[in-house]
Amino acid sequence: MKIERVTESLSLKRDLDSGTEQQRQAVLEILANVKKQGDEALLAYTEKFDGVKLASLKVSPEEIAAAYEVIDEELVCYIREARDNIYNYHRRQVRQSWITTETDGTILGQKITPLDAVGVYVPGGTAAYPSSVLMNVIPAQVAGVGRIAMVSPPGKDGKLPAGVLVAANECGVKEIYKVGGAQAIGALAYGTETIPRVDKITGPGNIYVALAKREVFGDVDIDMIAGPSEIVVLADGEANPAYIAADLLSQAEHDMRASSVLVTPSLELAERVAVEVEKQLATLPRKEIAAQSIRDYGAIYVTETMDQAIAAVNELAPEHLEIMTTDPMSIIGQIRHAGAIFLGENSSEPIGDYFAGPNHVLPTNGTARFSSPLNVDDFVKKSSIISYSKKAVLANGHKIAALARLEGLEAHARAVEERLKS
Question: Where along this sequence does the record place binding of Zn(2+) (predicted)?
Fold first, then answer.
C-alpha cells in the first residue's frame, strides 16, 4: 500500500459512475422498451442479461418458504435482531406535523405525509445483500409508506438468494419481483402489467442501474447516485495496525473501484499498516478484487500534525470514517464531512453495515459535503399549511400587494386587494 506525505489537496472524488455514451444509449433503449412493452420487455431482458427464462416475475409464497429451509435458524434470528436494531434507530428520526397560531388568527403549519409507494432495488451479481433489504425497507416502513415493492435480479436458477428473501419476509415486504438492471428501474418508474409504478426508487446497483435512476428522476424521485464504497481511517500512533488493515480491506473487497485510505501523523503506524495489509490480503477469498482496489485507489497519507490529518479528512468527505485515536470524542466535533462516523477501535465499519442500527446507504464520492445517509425523511413529503384570518389580511394585504407589484405581477396584487375591498 503506497505511503505519501500530505503536500497538496486530497480528494476521493472519481468520475466513475457517469457511464459512457454507449451505456447511456443502451439504458435509454431499455427504459423506452419497458415503458412501451411492459412485462414482455422485462421477461425478454431477464432472459438476455440474466440468462434465465421466467414464467413469472413475482416471487411466490412457496419460494419464500423454501428460502427458510436453506437459511440456518440461528442466522434468521440474527437477521431479526439486526432488523429490530435498525427499526429502533430509525423510529427516533420520525417528525410530527405541527401547527402554530398567532394572535391575529393566522394559522401556519407543516403536514408530514408518507409517500404512497416506494421501490427498493437490491443488487445481485457477485454477492447477495440481505442488509440492503433491511436498510432500504425499514426507514420506509417507519415513515409509514403504504406500499413497498422490491426488485432484484434472479440467479441462473431463476430464484433470488435465500438470505434476500428471508430478510424481505422478516420485514413484511409483500411485493418481491425477480427483475434487475435498468429494466427493473423502468418497471418501478413507469409500471407494467405486473409491477405497478412507485413514487420513489432507492437502493444501489451497477452502472446501468445508476444511469437508469438518473434518467427516470423527475418521473419519480430517487435516493442518490451512489459511487464505489469508501473508507477513511483517521488514526494516531497508538492505533492497532491489524485492526486498521482489516477495516481497510473490508471495503476493498467490495469493488475494484472501492477506496480505502488511512490518514495519520505517525509514519511508524503507516509503515506497520502497509505491511499488515499485504499480510491479510494474502488470505482473502476475494483477494483479486481487494488487491486491485488497494493498488488503484488505496493510500496512506502521513501528515505533520493531527490537526492537519483532520483537515485532510474533511477535504476527503468520506462515506465511512473511522476515528482510531486515544480520545475519539475529542475529535468528532471537528469532523464536518462524513457519511457515517465510527468512534474507537471496537467500532469496525461492518458493525454499521449490518447490525448497529444506523443506515448504511451513505453519500459517496465527496457528496457527504452536502448530503446525508438514507433516513426516514427520505420517505415523507412536507406540505405547508397557511390559514389567514380577515384581521391578518387587513393588516398585511397592502404589504403583500406591494411585493407582488415589485415583481410585476399585477394579478397577484389584485387577488389580495380584492379581499381588502370588503
Answer: 251, 254, 353, 412
Q: Report pLDDT for 13.
A: 58
| Alpha carbons 67 and 82: distance in angstroms, whole number | 18
CA distance 324 to 326: 7
Classified as helix, coil or strand, 129 is coil
**pLDDT value of position 1:** 84
In the CATH scheme, what is the code of domain 21-222? Answer: 3.40.50.1980
Give catalytic status of residue 319 as yes or no.
yes
Burial 165-195, CB ≥16 within 10 A → b, else e = bbbbbbbebebbbbbbbbbbbbbbbbebebb
Strands ordered across the beta sheet of 3-5: 3-5, 299-302, 259-264, 230-235, 320-324, 340-343
Point out the annotated binding site for NAD(+).
Answer: 121, 183, 206
Annotated binding site for substrate: 229, 251, 254, 320, 353, 407, 412
pLDDT in tens, 93-144: 999 999 999 999 999 999 999 999 999 999 986 668 999 999 999 999 999 9
List strand residue ranges (DSSP E) for 54-167, in order. Answer: 98-101, 107-114, 117-121, 147-152
Binding-site sequence positions for Zn(2+): 251, 254, 353, 412
Residue 9 has pLDDT above 70, yes or no: no
Q: Specify the CATH number of the domain 3-15+227-356.
A: 3.40.50.1980
Which of 95, 140, 80, 94 is closest to 116 using CA atoms? 140
Q: What is the helix (H) or strand (E) element at residue 302, kind and residue range?
A: strand 299-302
Active-site entry in 215, 253, 320, 360: 320
Per annotation, catalytic residue among 253, 319, 322, 345 = 319
CA dist 338 and 326 (Å) reads 20
13: left (phi over 0), alpha (psi -120 to 50) or beta: beta
Parse the chain into domains and list their residue ranges. 3-15+227-356, 21-222, 388-421
Q: Is 90 a catalytic residue?
A: no
Cell 509503515: give the residue.
Answer: 271
Angle between helices 267-281 and 241-252 in degrees, nearest 10: 50
Domains 3-15+227-356 and 21-222 share a fold: yes
Low-confidence winner among 6-15, 219-228, 340-349 (lowest mean pLDDT): 6-15
